[in-house]
Amino acid sequence: MSFSKSRWIAYVAARYVSRNRKRSPSAVFSILGIATGVLALIVIIAVMNGFQLGFIENILEISSGHLRIDNFPEGDEGAKLASRIRSLPGIAAALPFRETSVLMRGSISTPRGALVRGLPLDAMSLDPGFAEKLIMERGFFDLYREDSIVLGTELARFLSVRTGDIVTVLAISGGGLFPEDEEDSIYYTVTGIFDCGYYDFDLGWAFINIDRAAKLASEGEKSILLIKLTNRWQDQRMIEAIEKVLNEYHMFAELCTITSWRDYNRSFFGALRTEKLMMFILVGLIFIVVGLNIYQSQRRTVLERRDEIGMLRALGASDTAVRLVFVFDGFIIGIIGAAIGLFGGILIASNISAFFTLLESIANFFIAIINSVAALFGAGGAGNFEIFSPTVFYIKGIPSRVITHEAILIFFFGFLSALTAAWFASGRVSRTRPAEVLRYE
């Protein structure tokens, strides 16, 4: 079928949609249904991306990195090797560290378990990604003094300490405490308090000088080199490049082991992927409901236009051509609805804080009216409504990230649901016989 001969299909389908809109709201409701589904799915997935990617980036930038080399050598040889690794293309940062579990106590608080990580003095300059994610609430990230310590906000709150206060540290090494006598406990001065937005880190982490951390570590524990990549998905290629560098230092090649972020975060990242997939499927069920609505609407249209279908068939239109009229009808509904939902979803997701503020303002307006009515009868009123209250959620703002290929995929889901429904609904066209229809005209 040539383009010139098939133009009438698009013309007739457009006429049907236009006339249906005037005679029946079904086409409008179908378009609004597709638009609502696409918009809702884009906004929900964007907010979920904001939370999940925030967690992932905090873990990778602050805790685990993209690659880590265990049993990394120390001293001058280790410094040379780290410098050599930093020079590789694709390496964003390489930071040696030590860490150990400790019991920590403030002047008046009960002890609290924490993870203490020892870092070089120039950690912030060596690792810009770490510096960006670690927001200093009070004080400074100062490890130049041997007794300096930087605490997370929740840990500082639990220990009831502020900058300048003293904390007591007992290292948990080899199944016991070090030092064994509490009178010989190691004291640190709080020089800074950080907030990274990830509750586990803010409650359970502290940073000290790497040389001081070596004294707390168990015997035989070596430092670890934390490596950040410019593209974390290139981890396998970078492992091969680093192994070549290690082979240049034969004494270290057998001792050092390289681990990727995919391995030591596999269960957590897998859980996040599963959560996102299930949310995608559950919210995507709205397209099935909308598709059924379009299916019923199109079937009714086919029955109502049996005389017109018979006329088209009598004029020489084939079954396929007439069926495509109704499929193109679904195409128009799907493309308009999905386009409205796509642009609306991106607009809301890009201004998510303002959108939720508007919803909260509307809800609080009605709550205020209800409270005023309740006050007339001497009843108590309800408090203000917050969608993501800081008292419930450990967040300062609502994150949102629209990933392009996901938005396009959602757009096509909405569009194809309308197209598929129209295709199945138009199946009755092939059973329409022109002679039977025109006999009664």
Give a quick precis of the structure.
The chain contains 17 helices and eleven strands. By secondary structure, the chain is α+β, with helices and mostly antiparallel strands. It is elongated, with a radius of gyration of 32 Å.
Textual characterization of the structure:
The protein is α+β, with helices and mostly antiparallel strands. It has two domains: 3-55 and 269-438, no CATH class; 62-265, no CATH class. The chain is 58% helix and 17% strand. The protein has a six-stranded mixed beta barrel. The model has no long low-confidence stretch (mean pLDDT 79).
Please write out the topology.
Blueprint lengths: L2 H21 L2 H39 L2 E6 L2 H12 L4 E15 L6 E8 L3 H4 L1 H6 L1 E5 L8 E5 H7 L6 E8 L2 E3 L7 E10 L3 H6 E5 H7 L6 E7 L5 H14 L1 H4 L3 E4 H4 L1 H39 L1 H9 L4 H32 L1 H25 L27 H22 L8 H5 L3
List keywords for this structure.
single chain; alpha+beta; 6-stranded mixed β-barrel
- Compute the number of helices: 17
Distance between the termini: 30 Å
Class derived from helix and strand content: alpha+beta
Question: What is the helical fraction, as a range of percent?
Answer: 55-70%
Poorly predicted sequence stretches spanning 5 or more consecutive residues: none
Strand order of the largest sheet: 2-3-9-5-8-6
Number of spatially distinct domains: 2
